[in-house]
Design a protein that fits this description.
The chain has helices at about 5-15, 115-120, 125-135, 160, 175-185, 210-215, and strands spanning about 20-25, 50-55, 60-70, 75-80, 105-110, 125, 145-150, 165, 170, 175, 190, 220-225, 235-240, 250-255, 255-260. It is α/β, with parallel strands linked by helices and about 260 residues long. It is globular and about 65 Å long. It contains 6 helices and 15 strands. The protein binds oxo(2-sulfanylphenyl)acetic acid and manganese (II) ion. Manganese (II) ion (MN) binds near residues 73 and 79.
């Protein structure tokens, strides 16, 4: 098959529904959960605001439009390498300089929903990833790996989603050895359904926040607050995750989409 036929086939498969488009983004609005940093960090990202400019009224009789208050790291979003101090020196580590080729790649979905349901502090280890590979097939260089926890089903309620108590935050994520293992495989990035790519307990790990510290040190990417991973196969989907081209941006809300061959 020549290259043109290859894309023509994808196009007709999209039109026929043989390839489906799954929405991996949550709804972005005032109800969207936003990360709350510990009090030693004075500044936090704002809640989303949607302000009407006009809606077919005296301020604009024929048109509706809004202006927004929106943090880069809000809702379903992309973490660029420059977000973290370990990734600060990559010229191609900003939302406007990442090569666009990196915005579409094969997707591996590791199902941790049972573990996360019984333990909010569940950590995915390298060993567990290797067991998953033995069942599903190897993770390859350039691919995304995301952790399915069904945490997106809590996103309607910020208290449930952040799951904080006097001891800190309780939501699942990867261990240090998990991130090291995936980097050894050459993955393009790591994604989670939770508010952060790291677990709620990750500030006590060594190094702290490995999904941020190690992934971004390697010029790799993160995805947070993903939704609907329960609708995906373990392997075989293609992920489209492209941040806004924010000038010198460190991340961006995204409409994350998966292409999946119909069962
Ligand atoms: C800022 C500071 C710490 C963290 C984060 C942002 C995120 O999780 C994020 O959205 O990248 S842990
Ligand atoms: Mn982020």
């Amino acid at each position: 098959m020549n290259n043109a036929a290859l894309l023509a086939e994808l196009g007709s498969n999209l039109l026929s529904g043989a390839v489906q488009v799954i929405d991996l983004s949550g709804r972005l609005g005032p109800e969207t959960p936003v990360l709350k940093l510990p009090e030693d960090f004075a500044k936090n990202s704002p809640k989303v605001e949607i302000h009407k400019i006009s809606e077919y009224d005296e301020d604009g009789p024929y048109f509706a439009w809004n202006w927004l208050v929106l943090g880069e790291h809000t809702g379903t979003h992309f973490d660029a390498p420059h977000h973290w101090i370990t990734g600060r020196d990559y010229d191609d580590g900003y939302t406007d300089t990442i090569p666009p080729k990196n915005f579409i790649a094969p997707l591996n979905v590791i199902d941790c929903s049972a573990e996360a349901a019984s333990d909010a502090d569940f950590l995915l280890s390298a060993e567990r990833v290797q067991e998953w590979e033995a069942e599903q097939g190897e993770i390859n260089a350039g691919e995304w790996v995301v952790m399915r926890t069904d945490w997106h089903k809590r996103a309607h309620d910020e208290t449930l989603f952040l799951n904080m108590d006097q001891d800190g935050s309780h939501y699942p994520g990867p261990t240090v050895d998990c991130i090291e293992y995936l980097l050894g495989k050459g993955v393009i990035g790591w994604g989670s359904e939770c508010i952060s790519t790291d677990a709620g307990s990750a500030d006590t790990m060594q190094p702290p926040l490995p999904a941020h510290t190690l992934m971004h040190a390697a010029n790799r990417y993160g995805l947070a607050s993903l939704a609907n991973l329960d609708q995906l196969p373990a392997k075989g989907a293609l992920l489209i995750a492209a941040p806004l081209k924010i000038a010198n941006g460190t991340g961006s809300p995204i409409r994350a989409l998966a292409l999946v061959a119909r069962a």
